[in-house]
Write a structure and sequence with these properties.
Strand content: 15-25%
Largest sheet: 10 strands, mixed
Organism: Astyanax mexicanus (Blind cave fish)
Subcellular location: Nucleus; Secreted, Extracellular exosome
Family: Belongs to the class I-like SAM-binding methyltransferase superfamily. RsmB/NOP family.
Enzyme class: transferase
Distance between the termini: 41 Å
GO cellular component, one term: extracellular region
Structural class: alpha+beta
Number of strands: 31
Helix content: 25-40%
Radius of gyration: 27 Å
Length: about 725
């Protein structure tokens, strides 16, 4: 969100509850705010005149805008794991905090957002200064940081969480996120697709787009923490994002999305509590400059929306020029094909103001205009007719603009936000005569309207070439498969055709998987779209793996995707086994429990799955499945799990990992343990430099061992 950066391209990409650039990343959990004069007379004059704030509340509104924004977190991940994290938060950290006093002041424990389902979102006013004054709070802070790094908790502004909830996602939905970076909302969409953890490949998918190539990699980082085979990140101008094709029953059809998230670039005056530079930079010109772009993106969104589909339009601006004016123009252009949905009952507990039906426009010089007819000719390039309310009273009433939702900061201690839910009842007027779709007819259609721009952009990409590595699907008879199939005894329904790699030539270093539906999209649109990333890594090559029967070891990122298909190389483990595997370097096989030890002895050396299944009779044990990738050596066994995931699983089984204020270990590992951190019985792994952006999550070999010794590990 927030005002677009001129260096970010034409449409500035997406936002999540504010322009989450350097200032937000540096702020940390509960960070303070720099001293700045939070005054803007033009801002006050403008919004007092528009009357978007209820009578008698304007001073309270302005006071809230000047206060720091509470820190908010959302518990991410899939249902059973999210429940475990919530249990840990409530039963351990929140209970300790609620009776805590610091300097004679009682600490207010975090509170659940009343309107977010299942207590999965929380906010707190605790500052970093307070967090550092108590060992209990310091542990809480370290927990939050660690879980955020591995993707189980997301720092996300409260109002930013609203649009995905209003989309009402189901696992079969095909979803387009038009301006997706940095990706917090995208993560919500992915989680909703995977509401049933027992289904590794939901029928639906998310195509997450951003115009800014660099921000696309931030988006990739956010999305990959969820390890989903149903996400694709693409790099296009949202206002003319290409229309894609899919093959159905032997013929090619246009891909229409069941859900579209249209979270457009905006002036960001709803983010003043967090992005304090907006105070001095705000003028009405910001909205005038962005209105046209916002409308073009929204039009492109509804064009690609399926009939009966739902699109959510949102901004972090309170300005009706960016909000109701865009919606009114969109409804007028649709000629009845779109309708505003009444979403008032969708989020019980959320306080909001209904959309307004009358507004005026003001220039930065303070000149007001109530109607297009009042605008002088020399202003016509800056001010457009679509910025004003419809003049026909009946048409205005039929639009039901009051169904829009404006969230004001002083009502629930949040940022400012605007959201509208649209449903498509029929094709847009310019699309009503749908020709039979063939490759030729699509090419002809692409010469009309906005598609001319899309065609030009695509040609430009072809001319200069995509920098991304190719996405190459393996054939069913690829020689890579038989050893893998045999070694892991993959079930007959394993979808071989969904496996891809990132190279045409040479040895395949990593194998990835996507859903069948995303495979369809990739195969039929290689010339139309610029794909930045897709697929979840499931196998990585070993240097000398053939001697153990298979050249590919399992990758932790893809273990939950592969889990339903693997019928060999599995060791069922207990809670105590999990503790041993994640706290000891290379434990001997005998360190495992009797049952796990017996299973391990029957296996040859090589890659393994270490599987924990919940014991419903033991409520104190983790009530969600845990799948760990490991290696069975000659006499020892070890888990290959990225550092932050390791800490996460340790907390789940009742082991607390904590550093003191000096970063020292309380009762830490011995020097001999640290000296042996490099020892491993797994063969070396080739490093794929072409996939360097993914390397942070791949260092689960010797480097992983070192991290175990940098923490204090103590049972709780």
């Amino acid at each position: 969100m927030g005002k677009r950066n001129r260096n970010r391209g034409r449409n500035g990409g997406g936002r999540d509850g504010g322009a989450e650039g350097k200032s937000d990343r540096d702020s940390g959990w509960g960070a303070g705010y720099a001293d700045i004069i939070k005054e803007n007379k033009l801002f006050e004059q403008y919004y007092q005149e528009l009357k978007i704030v209820p009578e008698g509340e304007f001073e309270e509104f302005m006071e809230a805008m000047r206060e720091p924004l509470p820190a908010t977190i959302r518990i991410t991940g899939y249902k059973s794991h999210a429940k475990e994290i919530l249990h840990t938060l409530k039963e351990k950290y929140f209970k300790d905090i609620q009776d805590l006093e610091i300097d004679g002041q009682k600490i207010e424990a975090p509170q659940a957002l009343s309107w977010y389902p299942d207590e999965q979102a929380w906010h707190t006013n605790m500052s970093r200064k307070i967090l550092r004054k108590s060992p209990l709070l310091e542990k809480f802070h370290q927990f939050l940081v660690s879980e955020t790094e591995c993707g189980n908790i997301s720092r996300q502004e409260a109002v930013s969480m609203i649009p995905p909830l209003l989309l009402k996602i189901e696992p079969h939905h095909k979803i387009l996120d038009m301006c997706a970076a940095p990706g917090s909302k995208t993560a919500q969409l992915i989680e909703m697709l995977h509401s049933d953890m027992d289904v590794p490949f939901p029928e639906g998918f998310v195509i997450a787009n951003d115009v800014d190539n660099k921000r696309c990699y931030l988006l990739v980082h956010q999305a990959k923490r969820l390890n989903s085979p149903c996400i694709m990140v693409v790099n296009h101008d949202a206002s003319c994002i290409p229309r894609l094709m899919v093959e159905q029953n032997g013929t090619k059809d246009v891909l229409f999305y069941d859900r579209v998230l249209c979270d457009v670039p905006c002036s960001g005056d709803g983010t003043m509590r967090k992005n304090i530079d907006v105070w001095k930079k705000w003028t009405t010109s910001n909205s005038l400059h962005l209105h046209g772009l916002q409308l073009r993106i929204a039009v492109r969104g509804v064009e690609q929306l399926a009939v009966s589909g739902r699109m959510v339009y949102s901004t972090c601006s309170l300005n009706p020029i960016e909000d109701e004016a865009v919606i009114a123009s969109l409804l007028e252009k649709s000629e009845g094909a779109l309708e505003l949905v009444d979403a008032s009952a969708d989020l019980p507990g959320l306080k909001y103001m209904p959309g307004i039906t009358s507004w005026k426009l003001m220039t930065k010089e303070g000149q007001w205009y109530s109607d297009w007819s009042e605008v002088p000719t020399n202003r016509h390039t800056q001010i457009r007719p679509t910025m004003f309310p419809p003049t026909d009273p009946e048409k205005l009433q039929s639009m039901k603009l009051e169904r829009c939702m404006r969230i004001l900061p002083h009502h629930q201690n949040t940022g400012g936000f605007f959201v509208a839910v649209l449903m498509k009842k029929g094709p847009m007027p310019w699309n009503r005569r749908q020709p039979k779709v063939t490759v030729d007819s699509v090419k002809i259609a692409n010469l009309i309207g906005l598609n001319v721009l899309c065609l030009l952009l695509t040609c430009k990409m072809k001319l200069f070439g995509f920098k991304e590595d190719p996405f190459v699907f393996l054939t069913e008879d690829d020689p890579v498969f038989p050893p893998i199939q045999t070694f892991y005894n993959l079930s007959s329904d394993f979808p071989k055709l969904n496996v891809l790699t990132r190279t045409h030539e040479g040895k395949k270093r990593h194998l990835y998987m996507v859903s069948k539906e995303l495979r369809n999209v990739l195969l039929n649109n290689s010339e139309r779209m610029k794909v930045i990333n897709t697929g979840v890594k499931v196998w990585s090559r070993n240097n000398d793996g053939e001697q153990f029967g298979c050249a590919f070891r399992l990758a932790q990122e893809g273990i939950y995707t592969l889990n339903p298909y693997i019928r060999a190389r599995v060791i069922n483990i207990s809670v105590e086994d999990v503790k041993v595997l994640l706290t000891e370097e290379n434990p001997f096989l005998s360190r495992l429990g009797e049952d796990a030890h017996a299973q391990a002895k029957k296996l040859e050396m090589g890659s393994i799955v270490l599987r924990y299944q919940p014991d419903l009779k033991d409520p104190d044990a983790p009530q969600c499945p845990i799948e760990l990738c490991g290696w069975r050596g000659k006499t020892s066994i070890r888990a290959f799990v990225p550092r932050n995931e390791r800490l996460h699983y340790l907390r789940m089984v009742g082991v607390e990992v904590f550093k003191d204020k000096q970063g020292k270990k309380e009762g830490g590992a011995s020097e001999s343990q640290e000296g042996n951190a490099e020892n491993t019985e797994e063969p070396g792994q080739e490093e794929d430099t072409a996939e360097q952006e993914q390397s942070d999550t791949e260092q689960n070999g010797s480097a992983q061992s070192k991290t175990n010794n940098s923490e204090d590990v103590s049972s709780t």
